[in-house]
Amino acid sequence: MIDGADYASSLGDRGAVHLQKSLYAPAGEAHVHFPDMPTYSRDSLYGILKILQPLDIRIRRKPDQDWTTVFRGFVRSIGRDEQVGSDGRVQRSVTVVGHDCGAAFLMQTLGTIVTWQNKDKPLFQSLGWLSSWLTGKELTQKPHKIGDFLWEVATQSTKSIMEKAAFFFQKQFTVDTGYVIPTQVTSLEGPVWSLLSRYSDAPWNEFFVREGRDDPELVFRPTPWLDVDNNPLSGGKTPLALEIALSDILALSAHRDDAELVNHVWVNSPALAGAEYVQMKDLKEGLVTPDTREQFGDRAPQGLATWLGPTEKSPENAPEGEFPEITAKYKEWITERQAWAVKAGSQVHELERGAVTCKGNPTLRVGEYIHVARGPLLDWNGYCVSVSHDFQPFHRYVTTVEYIRGTQWLNRKKIASSNPWDKERATGT
Questions:
Q1: Coil, strand or helix: which one is 232?
Q2: Whole-angstrom Cα distance, residue 121 to residue 141?
Q3: Which of 216, 232, 379, 412 has the largest CB neighbor count within 10 A?
Q4: What is the C-alpha separation between 292 and 298, in angstroms, rounded?
Q5: What does residue 318 show for φ and ψ, rounded to 5 degrees?
Q6: Phi and psi based region of residue 273 (left: phi greater than 0; alpha: psi -120 to 50; beta: remaining)
Q7: Residue 108 DSSP code
Q8: How far is Cα 427 from Cα 425, in angstroms, rounded to an integer?
Q9: Residue closest to 72 by CA, chosen among 153, 154, 3
């Protein structure tokens, strides 16, 4: 649907829809290709559509199923191609490219030039707006809870863009620890996304947009990864997995490598830049699977930093008498972050990455675990980081899920004495 009008019938038998959403990209993308035909207004869709018109794509596999919204966003590009076919007839087609609501964080930018040009306008959304908002709430020197801060910045900076399209973010925030110091933030320039991404504090947390039932969801939560023993790295309950029936799977690919193997972890904290000795002193060694050092060499992730702090006070604004106590809390914060990274990196070279292509399933979303039951004792899980849908009327509808931290090989090891090759084929696959 575009601006409330249904153009599904315009796809015809030569049309196609391709949707792709990645957990680690700010916005998902849609490509809609269809024959150039007249509409009710006797004009082509190419002549009707406008840039940034609202775009809503819903899919269902069977007539008795409910429609599921798989894309909600903006028209970003419209193209039209005309060519003479082999039969001498002119063939015309239109291609529409859209980005989901995460694109609002890329369209809105922060910068000193924007600030200067809009300094006399009350509704400008720029670095100046951010500074005035912080000052108005007396947060210039006062650390702010990260969840409140990200929600305010995300919704206020994109308010006019979203309201113009009649979209509204639904808040799905569960991170309840961490503070940000606004004086560090106001020096940032570039898309709003760069600010949101940095201060969401990945990889310990996730910040992303995905489709909800009625509106887009803005998700900020602890990363729900499981360790090799199937326990949540961040504590709490084991996340539910969406099962993909083996009868629906069209293709499976999986691989393991040592690209992500680490055996040393060090977490930096910019808030302690003036007190480096606190970071070094008494911190535990971040050794991950130390027995891999001789075989794989010494490997450490680059640029692993936490941009948040554990308390409202930080080494930058702590009174002199409280400095030792505050820095000790920051050291504990870094140690906990390091311990999480050690668990995440443990035996990561034994976890799989891969893809599952199945019959079209609009309920599959990024940020969820998938479960594949492949016969007796061969069930496994994987964490979904990308979902794509390919739809061609009267031809096919398939969904491809890319996953990380898959446990298929680990589970095969557990039943190595039970002939996993034979058990795998006992299901007829």
A1: strand
A2: 25
A3: 216
A4: 8
A5: -75, 140
A6: alpha
A7: S
A8: 5
A9: 3
Q: Is the dihedral of CA 214, 215, 218, 223 positive or negative?
A: positive
β-pair partners for 406: 352
Query: Residue 55, SS3?
Result: strand
Q: Which of helix, strand or coil describes residue 169?
A: coil
The contacts of residue 262 (CB under 8 Å, 6+ apart) are 288, 299, 300, 301, 345, 348
Alpha-helix residue ranges (DSSP H) falling in 8-165 = 45-48, 104-107, 112-117, 127-136, 146-157, 159-164
What is the largest distance, in Å, between two alpha-carbon atoms of the chain? 86
State how far the Cα of 90 lies from the Cα of 95, in Å rounded to an integer: 17
Alpha carbons 101 and 165: distance in angstroms, whole number: 10
Report if pTM > 0.70.
yes
Q: One-letter amino acid identity for 199?
A: Y
**Along the 429 residues of the chain, how does pLDDT read in single tens digits?**
555 455 555 677 778 999 999 999 999 999 999 888 877 777 888 888 999 999 999 998 888 889 999 999 999 999 999 999 888 888 889 999 999 999 999 998 876 555 555 555 544 444 455 555 554 444 445 678 999 989 988 998 899 999 999 999 999 999 999 998 766 665 667 888 998 999 999 999 999 999 998 899 999 999 999 988 888 998 777 778 999 998 999 999 999 998 888 888 888 887 776 555 444 555 556 777 778 888 888 888 777 889 998 988 877 777 778 888 888 898 899 889 988 998 888 888 889 999 999 999 999 999 999 999 876 667 899 999 999 999 998 889 999 999 999 999 888 888 766 677 776 776 555
C-alpha distance across the termini of the chain, in Å:
39
Q: Which long-range contacts (CB under 8 A, 24 or more apart) does 153-156 make?
A: 153/192, 153/195, 153/196, 154/105, 154/192, 154/196, 154/218, 155/218, 156/125, 156/129
DSSP, residue by residue, 283-316: PPP-BSSGGGHHHH-----SS-B---BSSS--TT
